[in-house]
What we know:
heterodimer, A: 302 residues, alpha+beta, Alpha-Beta Plaits, 9 helices, elongated, B: 229 residues, alpha/beta, Rossmann fold, 7 helices
Amino acid sequence: xxxxxxxxxxxxxxxxxxxxxxxxxxxxxxxxxxxxxxxxxxxxxxxxxxxxxxxxxxxxxxxxxxxxxxxxxxxxxxxxxxxxxxxxxxxxxxxxxxxxxxxxxxxxxxxxxxxxxxxxxxxxxxxxxxxxxxxxxxxxxxxxxxxxxxxxxxxxxxxxxxxxxxxxxxxxxxxxxxxxxxxxxxxxxxxxxxxxxxxxxxxxxxxxxxxxxxxxxxxxxxxxxxxxxxxxxxxxxxxxxxxxxxxxxxxxxxxxxxxxxxxxxxxxxxxxxxxxxxxxxxxxxxxxxxxxxxxxxxxxxx
Amino acid sequence: xxxxxxxxxxxxxxxxxxxxxxxxxxxxxxxxxxxxxxxxxxxxxxxxxxxxxxxxxxxxxxxxxxxxxxxxxxxxxxxxxxxxxxxxxxxxxxxxxxxxxxxxxxxxxxxxxxxxxxxxxxxxxxxxxxxxxxxxxxxxxxxxxxxxxxxxxxxxxxxxxxxxxxxxxxxxxxxxxxxxxxxxxxxxxxxxxxxxxxxxxxxxxxxxxxxxxxxxxxxxxxxxxxxxx
Lengths: 302, 229
């Protein structure tokens, strides 16, 4: 079949069925946009994990003079206990990457800086926050080794793992991801059904042409290809629109507002859209080709 | 060219066979009228040649191929050997005369160059020169049937099947159409024409195969329409 003839057949088909072609484009756009958002959220979770795992620490709070922890029994940590703990931590290398000591004064300063805009800052005195060892791990997932080693050790108030706090955040973000992907799935099902209906309708409205094609001995491919290509073309336009929308979301929403409001948090950006773009296009293309081919086999017997 | 060996066709949910034990041999270059009342099996016979239906029993041979055993993917190749003309013309209403004829070549992947050459030739042969740009609804019935014949013949198939091509036309126009088919026949094309137009059959004096209730009751050269009853 000549390319020019194929193109003119596709063009006539699309023009005659413009409204339904537009609806295929729109449904494709929405489903891919949602799918893209879901994937970007997942990438954001991964980025944040990488970002936080670099910084994540296990805080071993030592006993201060005012510590309420049961293990301290009202006594502050001694210098000998501090040295013991430090030795133990050093022995845990390479699991432990870095060890920082934060004195009561340093803890107070950090708190004052972090909550400088909050009335909390005025209510706290040096010594309210006990001194601590901040331990950075090489493999953040193995925090429980450190926790179990120091929980209840002499001079240790309690061991706090920041991972737990983060896990909550990640759970929320994973929930959003699942919701977006779920909606995307529903939209893709809509797209499949719409494509099938479109082809059924087109096959019916062009039964004269296809009848003549069969009669003069046109190959099955010649008869079927224009139908498939119309759907594929509409899908490609829809995919391009969805990718453009995702880029615009990143460029005009995430970058200027969220990224500026949270400059110290690593965020997904426009480059991530380009990473997931081939996947989005590929998924929709596969859906379009499979759906239209299956529908044609059913409704366009040759 | 076309050979039926004890061919029977029973449609599902039908009490009597549409064709029953039909044996028939059409030589290359022959012109055969298939006559008979409505429901006698004329159309079924043509549909079996095109493999639009498969025989329930017996063998159908077209250009040496067993049509019944032909795999579905080879059916288009079979149909390229056969031009088909119908009572209701089956033209595409939104294409011009020229485009209707060219369409048959375009879907077979012929080059634009070849199409530009062959289509005007064919239109001239069927007597439609100068009407290339007309739309089908601007033509008379006879002219529309000429377009349909041009479309069936533009690919120069060795066989032309005509299913009551004059059924919608007045007697004079009908005769013109059959004379055109006769001219095509003289180029070596085998023609099988199903009809119940007795005037035409009687005037042309070609081979006549008469069907009744799915059976061949008469097969004679230079026959007339009703002699066998």
